[in-house]
Amino acid sequence: MTILGVALLALCTLIGVFLGDLLGVLLQVKANVGGVGIAMMLLIAARIWLIRHGRLSHATKLGVEFWATMYIPIVVAMAAQQNVVAAVSGGPIVIIAAVSTVLLCFAATALLGRLGGRSTTSAEVEHGGAVIAGDTDDAPLSKAPLSPTPLHRSARR
Amino acid sequence: MLHMLEHVFVEQSLVAAFAVVGGLMLVSNLAGKRLTRGRIHGSAIAIVLGLALASVGGLVTGGKRGLADIPALAGIGLMGGAMLRDFAIVATAFEVDVIEARRAGLLGVIALALGTILPFIVGTLTAFAFGYHDAVSITTIGAGAITYIVGPVTGAALGADSTVMALSIATGVTKAVMVMVGTPLVARLIGLDNPRSAMAYGGLMGTVSGVAGGLAATDPKLVPYGALTATFHTGIGCLVGPSLFFLIVRAMVG
Fold first, then answer.
1. pLDDT in tens, B190-207
2. Shortest Cα distance from B2 to chain A (angstroms)?
3. By residue range, what is the domain housing residue A119?
4. Distance (Å) from the C-alpha of residue A119 to the closest C-alpha of chain B?
5. Which end of chain B is more exposed for a tag (fewer CB within 10 A), N or C?
6. Residue A125 — pLDDT band, cuts 50, 70, 90?
């Protein structure tokens, strides 16, 4: 059942956000401390468990993956409601602080990314990208080097 | 007639948002393929279009939520709001290659630490240069350079005044917008093409909306890795901003 996948995703999100809130209370900060990150790790763990026990059905997978394919459209909707006017009219202090922060962090990304050599991306990573890009149906036609039957491959492991 | 159409949009706001964003993506993908011959990712165009529309919405309505402040397009606010955004971000974790993520785990932690410290230093120095000499204001503006959520959380905890809070939030929002637009432009230059560098990038840039947009516009396969580290960033910032960072700043400026 597809709803099982959606429910699994919802459960992981709820637990993660709850733990993040709890951590916030314990550490006395008025914010959620990494709730979404915890939720992501719970979902990763849930997927491993389901595969190991052979319980990851196609429908369950569909329920989660549908929301992964909705990621980019949702992000576009997010972009459409940013307070761009405030960002543009913030004055020099805002522009200087933001621009230098972003440039410095890009430079640091370049440095850190090169630490310990480069990793080549696996077929599984490419498949994940195809799902999130929302072109799972025409996957064999896309340029990404996909394994021929990603579904069966991941089910067998 | 137009009135009735508007009524449908208002009543079915989320459904309308799906249709509008779908149309936007369709146009952007066509533009990406036809006008730039696939050189620019369709989602990059869609995100920049979204930001442009957000500024139009902001100018027309004078509100803070871009396009979502127009009543007929209020559903955009729900679709792109924190709830569905986080739900979709968590869903992308289903596509994570565990071995890759584990391999880059330590790098992500280092990036998280750097991504909190570096923006804060830059923010505080800028604040100081522009004539803010009290510890509360300096810390609040510095925290805004971490993300636009860390800024106001820190400011509220320290009792900063509202102009400083506004500057802090504006700094964070500007950072987020710049990360969204800038990431695809510099991706190749900074080696952002594998899970390892994506995890470093997420931890360093932090701003969840910036990283969400930046990676979606760059390469979908990097999304879950960058998002995984970026989502911890705000929590850590909120933790150290009003406490450790404030104490250090106060010790330095008195």
1. 999 999 999 999 999 989
2. 23
3. 84-144
4. 7
5. N
6. confident
